[in-house]
Here is the input.
Amino acid sequence: MTIKEVSEKYDISQDTLRYYERVGMIPPVTRTAGGIRDYQEADLGWVELAICMRSAGLAVESMIEYVRLYQEGDSTIPARLQLLEEQRRILKEQKAQIETTIERLDYKISRYAIAVETGKLTWDEAAAEACGNTDAKRQRTDAGDKKL
Amino acid sequence: MTIKEVSEKYDISQDTLRYYERVGMIPPVTRTAGGIRDYQEADLGWVELAICMRSAGLAVESMIEYVRLYQEGDSTIPARLQLLEEQRRILKEQKAQIETTIERLDYKISRYAIAVETGKLTWDEAAAEACGNTDAKRQRTDAGDKKL
DNA sequence: CTAGTACCTGGAGTGAACTCCAAGTCAAGC
DNA sequence: GCTTGACTTGGAGTTCACTCCAGGTACTAG
Here is the structure.
């Protein structure tokens, strides 16, 4: 499979595919005699994995480390396991933060929806309604502050 | 409240607080006669909102737009509603991507855990086990390819 | 009044992750 | 063999979100 085909298949630029390989985020891709990339099934597996990790927001650096360990052989299996567990921990944290923010957006949106329907602003809360900050429970302001 | 206190309260640098204000991610903060920032309850609400949105990964740019609309007054309420709904859509997408990646990590981790326990690599799947890509359902490779 | 510390601004610098470019190589059609 | 278009590399440029810095101003203790 040519780089063009892979780029179309995964909707990612050819430059990014070359970049991933260059920095070691995927192992070296199979080449033709002439030096042209010819992605095999295994190469595609790595590409797909890289895209999956990146689209979840994981660092390029940690994927590079994973590939480095993989290339060092079976002795690095415990280290790889630890790395994967750490990445999972990061994602779970990020997911929790997103959920908190979605809740906050839901609340704001419900207030705005009412305002749009009735043509009036009817709330008087301060901007903060808890956001996962340790300090989230603050007292309400005294006045008709309509920011949200 | 001084910038130092706010920075400690939310565990964010003073530079970042000034940056948020400078680019318009929060409205201008209350100042003392001498020009020193003196965060009021309302200012803190904006700071907290900004931190919440950023920690979920939303763009600074969209927060700037929200503040701009807010400062233009009530006529922009429908536009603000639309903006918030768009941000929520983005977060839900990102959340789904994270969930997919966590599942993939779970699978890999379970395989590695077995390998660490038994001291042997016992799987033979290719690297890809579905990652939200349209192309996810690929055939297994023919050999004992132990990449994952 | 002075020393010292916290704060101010505008602007430059940084790191991450691409993205683009120039100059050259490879391969398919005529 | 020659043209044309896709591919190659190394390196430079871009964007985003900070982060740092220099030179100056404001409050606080002695």
Observations:
- Residues 2-4, 14, 18, 22, 34-37 of chain B lie near DNA strand C (CB under 10 Å from a C1').
